[in-house]
Design a protein that fits this description.
Blueprint (H helix, E strand, L loop, with lengths): L5 E4 L6 E3 L2 H7 L4 H9 L3 H8 L4 H11 L4 H6 L8 E4 L3 H10 L4 E5 L6 H7 L1 H4 L4 E4 H4 L6 H11 L6 E5 L2 H9 L3 E4 L3 H10 L9
Parallel strand pairs: 1-4, 1-6, 4-5, 6-7
Antiparallel strand pairs: 2-3
Length: 208
């Protein structure tokens, strides 16, 4: 088996903590009303349309029409989406910096709106400038775990599948990467990821 030489990260809930509450608890008091809004109105399932490439102007208009009493909160989702992303998850900045310092090529494949990505990318430029390539689902109109997005990323990165280890917090996305021949790790926390990367010969081996 060929050892991987590059790490391909997911972004939300692997590198950064994504939770719509980070934004909405600034806009409305925490409690049953907010719980219901995030459970029944502005849901992560509704948001997935943005990752697939639908414009926020369309999705928000539809949702406001269905829930006019929540129009103001719905309207905030897109313009203030970056506020839904918190700090890097514990230990992940240190691990990414260690990989980068060792010369390990870093890449990402993220299910992320093409509209919402640029301001977040700009906010986190210090980290993402270390990445050699990032494929954003909303720009490509392809989402994980569709095999096509992995193939597109590998072609764009100039890598063979077996040269990469893919890291994602969703089992279906991990299975999608494995299906195209990539090494893949289901993310739980930075310590477990470090153990997996050590076993694969990436961490602690010097430059790639």
């Amino acid at each position: 088996m060929i050892k991987p030489r590059a790490v391909v990260f997911d972004v939300g809930n692997v590198l950064y903590d994504w939770n719509p509450r980070f934004l909405y608890e600034r806009l409305t008091p925490p409690g049953p009303a907010l719980d219901a809004f995030l459970r029944d109105v502005a849901t992560k399932e509704w948001h997935f349309q943005h990752d697939a490439g639908r414009p926020f102007v369309e999705t928000s208009a539809e949702l406001r029409a269905a829930h006019p009493d929540h129009a103001e909160l719905i309207a905030a989702w897109g313009p203030r989406f970056t506020e839904q992303l918190g700090d890097m998850l514990p230990g992940m900045r240190e691990l990414v910096l260690e990989l980068d310092a060792a010369g390990v090529p870093l890449y990402a494949i993220t299910n992320f709106s093409g509209e919402f990505w640029p301001p977040f990318r700009a906010r986190e430029a210090d980290l993402f400038d270390r990445f050699r390539g990032i494929v954003v689902s909303g720009d490509e109109l392809l989402t994980k775990p569709d095999p096509a997005i992995y193939h597109l990323a590998l072609d764009r990165f100039g890598l063979r599948a077996e040269q990469c280890v893919f890291v994602d917090d969703r089992a279906d996305n991990v299975a999608g990467a494995q299906g195209v021949g990539m090494h893949a790790v289901l993310f739980t926390d930075s310590a477990d990821l470090r153990d997996n990367l050590t076993q694969l010969g990436i961490v602690g081996r010097g430059s790639a």
